[in-house]
Design a protein that fits this description.
The chain is mainly β. The chain has 1 helix and 9 strands, in the order H-E-E-E-E-E-E-E-E-E. The protein has an 8-stranded antiparallel β-barrel. The longest helix has 15 residues, at 2-16.
């Protein structure tokens, strides 16, 4: 059972790293501020994962906090494409059936490559590999800092032995370089 919990947590963590958000605030800036190279400095998320496994439904809570970065860079280009490189390590804590398990996992290709569109305070990225658009709320966008968040984001996916639903809140902070 512990291996299933860890496997589900790792799978969720990999899916979650390419997520963004979907909210609006009063941060009014133009696309020019977004263009250029951004270095990831913080990632954190919390959520709940529900897994249907061999006829049983299991629910676990999780939280993740970045602990280190290795050249984790996102580049937003003027032609509305983006690329990412580098990696980071996330410390993931899973709470399941009264037990808590914390492990660190490396995350590569954290943002992928694709296209982006900024509308108001929403940044929507479409990952080339996943093909799905993910809207992110822009909490901060200025000459030095980009902070994106997502609230109540749900991902449904098939998993080993059944379906999985992941509900999460997610924040990522980047500094312009």
């Amino acid at each position: 059972m512990k291996k299933i919990t860890i496997l589900c947590a790792v799978f969720s963590m990999l899916i979650l790293t390419s997520c963004s958000t979907d909210d609006n605030t009063s941060n009014n800036v133009n696309n020019t501020s977004l263009l250029g190279d951004w270095e990831m400095i913080d990632v954190n998320y919390t959520g709940t994962q529900t897994v249907d496994f061999q006829g049983q439904t299991m629910t676990m809570d999780f939280s993740g906090q970045s602990v280190s970065f290795e050249d984790a860079i996102v580049v937003f280009n003027q032609d509305n494409t983006y690329t990412s490189s580098g990696s980071y390590v996330i410390e993931l804590t899973v709470n399941f059936m009264g037990q808590s398990n914390t492990q660190q996992f490396p995350v590569d290709n954290f943002f992928g490559t694709g296209t982006w569109l900024k509308s108001g305070n929403t940044l929507t990225v479409t990952d080339d590999q996943l093909g799905s658009a993910t809207p992110a709320n822009i909490d901060i966008l200025n000459a030095t800092t980009l902070k994106l968040s997502i609230s109540n984001y749900t991902v449904s996916m098939p998993g080993p032995g059944g379906n999985q639903d992941v509900d999460l809140d997610y924040e990522i902070t980047l500094n312009k370089i």
